[in-house]
Amino acid sequence: MELFTYKKPLELMRKSKRFGIISLSILILSLGLIFTKGFNYGIDFAGGTLIQVKYEGKAPIDKVRESISTDKAYEGASVTFFGGDDEIVIKTKMSSKKLGEDVSDKVRTLLKNTGTFEVRRVDMVGAKVGSELREQGIMSMILAILGILLYVSFRFEWRFAVASVLALVHDVTIAMGMIVLFGIEVNLDILAALLTILGYSLNDTIIVFDRIREGINTIKDPHLGKIIDESVTRTLSRTTLTSLTTFFVVLTLFVFGGEIIHGFSFTLLVGVIVGTYSSIFVASPILLWLGFSVSDYRLKEAEKAKREKEKEKMRAMYENGTI
Amino acid sequence: MKTLNYRVVLFVFALIFGIVFSIPSLTQSDEGKKITLGLDLQGGLHMLLGIKSEVAIESRIKSMAATVKYLFDDEEIIFDDLRMTKDNKITFELLDKDDVLKATTLLKKEIEGTTLVQDGLKFSLAMKAVEVLRTKQNAIKQAVDTIRNRLNEFGLAEPTVAKQGEDKILVEVPGIKTQADEQRIRELIARAAHLQLMAVDEDRIARVDTMSENEARSFGDVIYTDVNDPRKYLLKAIPVLDGSMLTDAKVGFDQNNQPVINFTLNGQGAKIFGDFTGKYVGKRMAVVLDNKVYSAPNINERIGGGRVQISGRFELSEAHDLAIALRSGALLAPVYVMEKRSVGPSLGADSIRSSSIALVLGFVLVILFMFIYYGIAGAIANVALIGNLFLILAIMSLFGATLTLPGMAGIVLTVGMAVDANVIINERIRELLHAGKSVVKSIEDGYSNAFTAIWDANVTTLIAATVLYAYGTGAIKGFALTMSIGILASMLTAIVGTHGIYQWLLPKIDKKKLNFWFGIKAEGAK
What we know:
The structure holds two protein chains of two kinds.
Chain A (H helix, E strand, L loop, with lengths): L15 H21 L3 E2 L1 H4 L1 E8 L5 H9 L8 E5 L1 E9 L10 H8 L6 E9 L1 H29 L2 H24 L3 E2 L1 H31 L5 H33 L5 H20 L1 H7 L4 H27 L3
Parallel strand pairs in A: 1-6
Antiparallel strand pairs in A: 2-4, 2-5, 3-4
Helix pairs in contact in A: 1-6, 5-6, 5-7, 6-7, 6-9, 6-10, 7-8, 7-9, 8-9
Chain B lengths: L5 H22 L8 E2 L1 H4 L1 E8 L1 H22 L4 E6 L4 E6 L5 H11 L3 E6 L2 E6 L1 H26 L5 E5 L3 E7 L4 H12 L4 E5 L13 H6 L2 E6 L5 E5 L4 E2 L3 E8 L5 E7 L1 H13 L5 E5 L2 E4 L11 E4 L5 H12 L7 E9 L1 H30 L1 H23 L3 E2 L1 H30 L4 H33 L3 H31 L8 H5 L8
Parallel strand pairs in B: 1-19, 10-16
Antiparallel strand pairs in B: 2-8, 2-18, 3-4, 4-6, 5-6, 7-8, 9-12, 9-15, 10-11, 13-14, 14-17, 15-16
Helix pairs in contact in B: 1-11, 1-14, 3-5, 5-9, 10-11, 10-12, 11-12, 11-14, 12-13, 12-14, 13-14
């Protein structure tokens, strides 16, 4: 089966402005959401306690709310269904430092008369740990981006590195915007998902860039736009196919993976879509706008090759004993 | 005709290796190395504890003060006004000028890491900065050891207790069945188990109900309440001796068949205890545990042998846990919870089930897609994918790595991304076939053309995964780990392995059936 057969390059670069505007507006919208509505930090980053309770049969959620509100300490606690209707999650901003009696023990006593239940999960994060985790999270993002920037500069050229990182920032920001838009709770798993998007979207971009790098050396036309068009078109089938397979598995994870990794798989789902889009329509135009010059690059490469050759020659002469 | 080549041999070896070493994990047999399930999958308790190390300093000062008192009494040095100040110093006054030299040499010899400041006959003894630091570090180390001992004695399977960072303790206990069990374990860990034997201040105890803590301190006393009722006791703040001189603690029963704890003191403790009881006949001595008075019996006669009993109307399980805590020693400094995650076993089982379904379904979808789209070339990629899965399991088993829920997600994701290499390669081969190249040339050039792209893409993903591993905590580390192993394994299976299979099958590839082999209708293959 073949879905994509290469006939002639798509004229993507001619339309790059259009995509640029689309991307920019989504980006601004996302940033707006992030800064106005803000993240819904879960207990991992904000501190607090989460208690997951499973009932035999339907969970008496009103009764649970009532029982919990009898204790003043639980004011502002939220009680919601989790997955099915037999399971609920109680969240409070409180955390307790005491080992002997913590928030979950109290909740267990408060819920005594609400039916037969089993406490299935208790997560408690102190406020101090929460802020530490947040700092670590931001730090890891920055470090990952720096590492990637270095590697791509080393393997390609600095403009490739900047373009790929800008595409990354684009993807991650939009994914964050979606997280805010859908009110997904931000916990450590969301951070992991964002870092995965970082890796994934970069993967896609690198493969397109690799083709462009190859194109610079093999395609006669010295116009970068033309080279990009041809390279992107040639990798189009791969980009789409891989995105499809990844999309399949992330979708099964989203649908069947269970409630606990819902936020994680949702973020990945967004990331796969945005990452695919950006590697086709965003990363390469940036390369163009950064003023990458094909002839300069070729000149440099030729010089490099010449130097190598001279070195070889010298070595050969040395080995032959002429020097 | 060359049929076998090093690539295919390598791949077959990798496949066999993968299958053999993943069997113990897949069958969950008792033999062989296998993957440990993370706490989120098998259920258990994960805690990050902080430690109040300043308390270790206070109690160190306290025990120093007790030593000073004992030494002076023993050497018949007359002193007065021995007390502990709020800024962790010990002050006292000597009454006889002739004792100064004797006292200072004695203190220098017996109490290490302190500075002694003299002002006339008044002295103050303080810990050196190095000693303070050492005490704090020691408190953490001791807390780690103590908590580990307690959990081991409790009979729990493979608890993990480790120092994390400068001043945190990581505790992981798998296999806890109920919330009530979990609470009991938390209490056991938290128990300071700080045992003190203290003299009752018989002269002033009559006034204890109206006395403030500050007033008590001015007499060198302290007020503690009874463990079972609000009764108050006025006790000499400097204990006769503490739990550090205890050698054993066991649960026993008193004449009313109530559980009690019998403990034995070491030689020095027994001597101090004997001397004290001999001197204080007719007065009361309180057994104080974690700042609660458990009993305060009258001393009828000198008690030698160093055997003491705590009775406090215990539940049997409580007495049992308490004896463990006493045996494993006191925590020099109390611990508190910074982070706690506990997962019940049923939730873990649910997580395993749902993520396995996602894994199998995702896997089947990808395999079907590859075969339909690429024909035999897709099937070859699928063989590599299966090999990749086995390799991930085998490597994780060999390292005894922990599989967490995000780790499962990592494997699912790897399935999606590992076929990427084969998609890239197959697309390159198709391109060359379309351009009219021969099958051999298309395959060889296809692989070499695709290599740089796959390499660079994988290295960058690895960079992200490494950072995630370095900065991630707990379960997230598992995700980064499976993803990294998956990427590395895919280099072997998807690049080397499939290449080998092509070379092996090459003589059989019919260039007229390119649709069957590569899923394309190529016109001019030569």
